[in-house]
């Protein structure tokens, strides 16, 4: 069982494999029981301060004897210039920055009598969390029932303590002290709201920073939940950030099931052995390799907050480092009052590059002929697979042949787009020989708003032959058509028509 303690209140939306089992109040806390992909989590939303924190973790440990790990996931203030708004610091070292018991012999500033100078954790669980590499940095947390408002206060504290502190908060130190005494794993993951050494208490960007930081908290928790509930032994220490981005997306979409697309009896996913991941079975006798590549990735510029959210002056002076802009939102234009047709429905083709099926197929073909060989425990790995993640602005949309309405269903949309990919990929890759046992193409097709329809297209399991993707069904296009807006070889009765919405003015 894993416990999560936070001053932020959040809920988990019920869906297949995920549900909130129970929710109740205890003293001044909200306790939620969440069953997530077979793993049990207990979430406590608490009040600010050391007393509330100590009370919360003590209650959880007494009420839930099976509690093995506690995470403190929360917002905090940075006292290190390298950490900016929305950066995440993972801490395994904690001190009290308001504890001054130096009148006692051999007691240092920040230390409690009969306690260590700092509470540190370096367990296997800590290494496991670090292996996830969720875009976090290491740092020391200083806890006190007071905040720091300027650099003078910080300098006075550091002079007393004798070393720097990266993050300040009002809970983690107390949680760490109780966890250490109780031999419970503990890690804090703090998302930076602002730098405490700048005039943050009257910041004109306060609302926007809270919005961005809260989104980062949700993003981090989603990935933690997915990875902590995995049944596999995971080691992502040698993966690149691009590979980890793809791996995390696959966990979010299919949880552990995505691994079974390549190998059924996997117990461990290990990086750093040549391929992106080595899939290892229980006995380690028949490992298989998976190379993960990303093709046609759009370059994301590091730009400031949206002018829509901020005023012009605020936008000009805003920090340039912001988390994960939703790039597709800038390119998707759908308005019921305008024409909805195959050249204007989903993209602004004047400002953004749209890639055709041929572009995608060529990129896949280039990546599908890698002749590298890998070894595991001194033995050559016979089977290797390729996962191609296509992050381009794909030129598809899905329409109903009679009503010309857009199809937004993930299930139906995925099948239709996979069908379209299969048809053209098999034509364009018929002469391309690949050494991979299986190739899986993972594509995200934009739909309404920020929705993206995930699409998986798999080859047949045969290496060193021309690439052939499984199945193609003409029946699937009886009611719907997948339209590639860069092509013009479709039935004009289906895709050449357009829709105009006329709103009649009501009579007085």
From TrEMBL:
> A Gene Ontology biological process annotation?
L-methionine salvage from S-adenosylmethionine
Q: Which Gene3D superfamilies match?
A: Nucleoside phosphorylase domain
**Residue ranges of domain Nucleoside phosphorylase in the record:** 31-204
Q: Name one GO molecular function term.
A: methylthioadenosine nucleosidase activity
InterPro entries recorded: Nucleoside_phosphorylase_d, Nucleoside_phosphorylase_sf
One GO CC term, this protein? cytosol
Which SUPFAM superfamilies does the UniProt record give? Purine and uridine phosphorylases
A Pfam family:
PNP_UDP_1
Looking at the UniProt entry, the stretches that span the membrane are none
Supply the name of the protein.
Adenosylhomocysteine nucleosidase
Give the species: Spiroplasma chinense
């Amino acid at each position: 069982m894993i416990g999560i303690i936070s001053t932020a209140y959040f809920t988990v939306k019920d869906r297949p494999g995920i549900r909130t089992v129970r929710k109740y109040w205890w003293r001044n806390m909200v306790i939620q029981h969440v069953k997530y992909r077979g793993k049990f989590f207990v979430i406590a939303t608490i009040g600010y301060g050391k007393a509330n924190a100590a009370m919360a973790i003590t209650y959880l440990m007494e009420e839930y004897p099976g509690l093995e790990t506690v995470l403190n996931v929360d917002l905090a203030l940075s006292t290190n210039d390298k950490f900016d708004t929305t950066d995440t610091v993972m801490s395994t070292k904690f001190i009290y920055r308001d504890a001054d018991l130096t009148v006692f012999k051999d007691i240092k500033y920040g230390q409690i009598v009969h306690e260590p100078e700092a509470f540190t954790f370096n367990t296997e669980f800590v290494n496991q969390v670090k292996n996830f590499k969720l875009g976090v940095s290491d740092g020391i947390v200083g806890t006190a029932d007071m905040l720091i408002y300027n650099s003078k206060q910080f300098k006075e504290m550091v002079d007393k303590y004798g070393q720097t502190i990266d993050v300040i908060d009002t809970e983690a130190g107390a949680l760490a002290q109780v966890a250490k005494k109780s031999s419970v794993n503990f890690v804090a993951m703090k998302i930076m709201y602002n730098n405490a050494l700048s005039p943050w208490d009257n910041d004109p960007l306060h609302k926007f920073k809270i919005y961005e930081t809260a989104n980062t908290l949700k993003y981090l928790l989603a990935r933690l939940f997915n990875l902590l509930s995995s049944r596999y032994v995971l080691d992502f220490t040698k993966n690149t950030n691009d590979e980890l981005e793809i791996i995390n997306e696959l966990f979010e979409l299919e949880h552990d099931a995505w691994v079974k697309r390549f190998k059924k009896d996997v117990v461990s996913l290990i990086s750093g052995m040549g391929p992106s991941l080595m899939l290892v079975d229980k006995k380690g006798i028949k490992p298989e390799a998976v190379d993960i590549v990303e093709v046609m990735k759009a370059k994301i510029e590091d730009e400031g907050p949206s002018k829509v959210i901020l005023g012009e002056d605020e936008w000009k002076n805003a920090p340039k480092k912001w988390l994960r802009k939703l790039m597709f939102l800038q390119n998707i234009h759908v308005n019921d009052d305008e024409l909805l047709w195959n050249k204007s429905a989903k993209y602004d083709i004047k400002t953004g590059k749209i890639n055709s099926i041929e572009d995608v197929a060529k990129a896949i073909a280039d990546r599908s002929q890698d002749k590298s060989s890998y070894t595991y425990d001194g033995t050559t790995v016979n089977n290797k697979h390729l996962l191609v993640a296509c992050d381009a602005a794909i030129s598809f949309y899905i329409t109903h042949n009679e009503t010309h309405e857009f199809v937004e269903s993930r299930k139906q949309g995925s099948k239709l787009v996979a069908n379209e990919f299969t048809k053209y990929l098999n034509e364009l890759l018929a002469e391309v020989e690949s050494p991979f046992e299986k190739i899986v193409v993972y594509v995200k097709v934009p739909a309404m708003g920020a929705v993206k329809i995930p699409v998986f297209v798999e080859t047949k399991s045969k290496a060193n032959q021309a690439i052939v993707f499984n199945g193609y069904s003409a029946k699937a296009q009886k009611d719907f058509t997948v339209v590639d807006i860069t092509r013009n070889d479709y039935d004009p009765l289906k895709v050449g028509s357009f829709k105009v919405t006329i709103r009649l003015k009501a009579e007085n």
